[in-house]
Amino acid sequence: QPVIISLLPLKEAVRTSMVSRSWTTLWRFHGDLCFNEPVDVDSNTDDNPADQVNGTGTNDQSTNQCGTKITRAKFIETVNSVIQQHSGIGINKFSISCDLHKEDSHHLDRWIRFAASSKAKIIDFDLKLFDYPVEEAPHFPLEALDAQGSSFVQSLSLAGASIKPSSGICRFTVLRRLVLNSVQIFGDFPGLLAKCSRLEDLEIIRCSGVDDLIVPHKLDKLQKLLIARTDVQMVVIHAADLAHFEYEGRLIPIVLHGCSKLEKATIAFDTTNPSALAHAFNVIPSISPVKILIVRAIISTYAQVTLFFFLLAYLIILETWCYCQCHLICSCHVSVPGAAIKTTGHVYASEAYDLSNCCLLSRVK
To answer: Which sequence ranges are marked TM in the entry (predicted)?
Structure first.
């Protein structure tokens, strides 16, 4: 019976309590507690578009808002009821995705305490900010996950929240994956990363509060690093096992020490600065051993296209894609020292400034 329950989604596992008395409490040991607030507030209005319009020809916002509040209240009630009845034993994943309002923030504290006390291995909170900006996002207490002196979390994903790492937090000794999306970061974030010695996957997306992402300590286990739309001034990380690196944002200094195992790098600079291409190749020397390099840049002149292939000649790589935006059509052949490389394509763009076709280079065997 416990094996059957563990294979069912939480909703179906709860329904099995109706099978017999012996099944009544089995769902309370379910290992994955995943709660997703319904997207559609009122399915009836979706079936009939006319129901969404009142007599004046405008959306009936008051009705929709009332339905939204009822749905949210029911969702919160369901989550609280489940965690109250659950044994809190053997939880593998605790996940919540919902629109959280200011007046409901106290429920967040209760959910975090439950996830911490149950020692969930995977924790995922996606709080879709609805009525307040990111700067006022609800606080997620990292110290709650470390209340017993040794962290149990292997994967932590936060969206629409704020965190404040402090020196009092002990090491996250088993944390392997950290994803922050639209998170306001206060305090010593590099210090937090330095305590994650087993971190393998780090993703920072649309976050704020970190000026310089400098981690002086080695993250020897880090294999994937993604930094996108985050307003940082500099990135300096020691990562000997880094295999995948992706950056999207402003033109900044990026230093990845000891990346001899780098297999794929994606770099997209939000700028029309002609030096962006040179920056990708020269200012980021750690990408030189990469096998697959994807560079997204705006190329507006023939000189910039020539510069790209000139810089490419200094890399020994297997495949390269370059997304360009230009008026010219050209076909190029590049010989790389130490490796025979040929082009199998061309770079072009239409007068409408669409992105060009790929320029694919592959090693000749």
So the answer is: 293-317
